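To: structure desk
From: M.T.
Subject: fold request, one chain
Message: Could you run this one when you get a chance? Sequence is below, nothing fancy, just the single chain.
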Amino acid sequence: MRKSDNRFFTLIELLVVIAIIAVLAGMLLPALSSARERGKSVTCLSDFKQLGLACQLYSNDNGDYLLPTELKFADSAAGNSAKHFGLYAGLEDRYLAPYLGVHPYATYGSIGVASNGKIYRTPMLCPSLQFKNVTINGYIMTYQLKAKEISSGSAVLIARKVVKIGSLKYPSDLFHISEGNSNCLMVDWDTVYTPDLNKACGSIDFRHRGSANLLFADAHAESRVRSNVPCKEHQGNDSYYSSFWATGKAQDLKYRF
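Reply: Done. Structure tokens follow.
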């Protein structure tokens, strides 16, 4: 009879195969992780473009006015309320709700815990935003369009912060909305990296492998790395007068960075 040709792996051969598989996995997993994050960034950028379209519709229906960061309403009282924030999603007749739909809890692109203890996620949520057991606002708007302030215990309208798109010299340069990662709703030229809670301003979250998606006043969206966002840390006080932040008279002292 012929002897069987069946042959089993030796222990050494098996260990070599396992080692090769481990090396290949180590080479492939970072590439897969990078591709997955790029996919999340593309999805997020697509949401920003949809957000830009909604902002355009808002401007068309409201006399060419740019969506404000915060506005005084009849229900305004002393203090801050998310209901007055430009990306508030809870009232069907306010801001972008007629175009993006209503969500009963908070602002678009947020994740948090409702009063009943359940975790909620609002529309336009960035897939890279991580839940932290507290309410997180995934979008953050420019402080330069905050058109409400508290004076002598009452809410007051800041007329110069209510801006028509047609009044802007460089609408494609003017920053409007970016990505946040805290309970803050606004960001300013001097808080891009470091939050200033006295101004209720947070920082931009560069969560897509060192970049963040941004929406501009002309409704176009793009991705930028930290070094391409004008701010106090890079240009000092000149950044306030850049076309990235400036509205009104500040546009007269314009820097294109």
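Reply (cont.): The two ends are 85 Å apart (CA to CA). Let me know if you need anything else for the meeting.
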